[in-house]
Specification:
By secondary structure, the chain is of the alpha/beta class. The chain has helices at residues 15-26, 71-74, 107-115, 119-143, 151-160, 163-166, 179-186, 190-202, 216-221, 234-246, 290-296, 305-312, 356-367, 414-432, 436-439, 448-454, 508-520, and strands at residues 4-11, 31-34, 46-47, 56-57, 84-85, 89-94, 100-104, 228-229, 250-252, 257-263, 266-272, 277-286, 320-328, 348-351, 377-380, 394-402, 440-446, 492-494. Helices cover 33% and strands 18% of the residues. Strands 1, 2, 9, 10, 11, 12 and 18 form a 7-stranded mixed beta sheet that branches. A 7-stranded mixed beta sheet has the order 7-6-14-15-16-13-17. The protein has a two-stranded antiparallel sheet with strand order 3-4. The longest helix has 25 residues, at 119-143.
Length: 528
Amino acid sequence: MPDATFDAIIIGAGHNGMALGTYLAKCGWEVAIFEKRTEEGGGLCTEELTRPGFLHNVHCNYHTLVGVCPVYDDLDLYSHGLEYIHPPVQMGSVFPDGTALTVHADIDKTCASFARFSEKDAETFRRLHDEVKGYLDLILRTLMYSPPIPLLDITKALVVWKVAEKSEFLSVHLRNMTITQFLDEHFENDKIKAQLAFQAAISGYSTDRKGLGVSFPLLVGKMDNWHVCVGGSHQLAHALWEAFAHAGGSVFLNTPVAGILTENGKATGVRLYDGSEVRARHVVASTIDLEQTFLKMLPRERLASELVQQVEQYPHMDWSYYSVHLALREPPQYRAAEFDPDIQQAWVLNVGYANLDDLNQEWKTVRAGKLPDPKPNCAVNTLFDPSDAPDGYYTGLMRQFAPIGIGKGGFEAWDEMANPYGERCIDAWNEYAPNIKQAIIEWVPYTPLDISRRLINMVRGDWMSGLIDLNNLLTERPFPDLSQYRTPFQGLYMSGATQHPHGFITFAPAYNALQAIAEDHKLERWWQ
């Protein structure tokens, strides 16, 4: 492209880049987004992986902050065709003994399901749920939709707000607890604990990591807020693109950034692979990974050695996801429906974890580079959005916690193991829903290696863009010097999933980086 100048240049057209660009464009700035791939949206990609007409959400399938995240309303995304469905039966578990447990949008129904296993735990869950809902806006604004403050300051705030002294569950001691320990302290039934731990795990929170107990109340607060994006997750990407275009922004697809231009300690633009240079009057914002941004796009001689070392040692997730995308003739028919018919309508299903030990042992297995006996989480979006499959057919998804590399074969061994492991996962689902094998028209595996090939900023299949650990949250993410979205180069900001809070469709990295940019450049805050 010819040389040009914009007020702000954003690297990466994922959901964070598109959202940040739209906010800035609505401030009156000229904004350009440069994207390596041929479509916007990043992980919000929906493709016909199996057969024509079967829409598969390749990465992001579950949208959990709809109605909570301010971006949806600030950018008026619903006026751009975005539509969601909130399944009445949100989640569920099927167990080896033929029983089932269901989590509903209706708290009374959830507690009724829990009470079949433990009336005491049902009462405890209701108290936890009600308490967290009462503080949810406060917690979200403090923990997610604000630039991060140190964990110690948050625990002090709990005391100042008198939350800690009024709360049965939100204590200053949570930062020393694993999620497993929190569940063991407050609940008695293994199956209820397994369901609650499963919900944390599929949100990226390993249940055996010390300190992540501090995040568990927040996870409970959005446990009944899982949404299906009608027409596939890419519809959110399209709504963002349309909002950005209406605000006057420009997206350049298939136009990767080769380097970030700097002069006298200030970011002044980007260099593209065709050799052209695009200048930025005020801001360059990177929404991609640390390694590309600092080790490939910036001149190494202008980086402090300590910064280079911190980037090189940045901790990535120590497990990833292996997925199977399926075209189905019919939905699964669970044996456990005899125990609880509602399991047939549950969206996000735990297939096999019956206690905390099952899950905690799996973390050890995958960290050791071994393939666990599959206990996949399963979903059939077509039960709620018939548009994602041809009439009378269904689109299915299985996801399994998986190692980054497999044994001596390492990361590349996934190419050899993709199909054999998929067969094992299908067998595992079929044990609980014995019609699944005959219902399959076609299936396609999707491995951690495939994740990194499709979206290179998800380094080695790291779909959270950084380990979820007490040492990599809040002001420690990605490390203190970069935790406030600013960088050592004036005008260069980090606004992607490597920043607080983490990956997933939270929009929080973009929203929080926006606050830093607005403060530095005296922008009028038209958003609340």
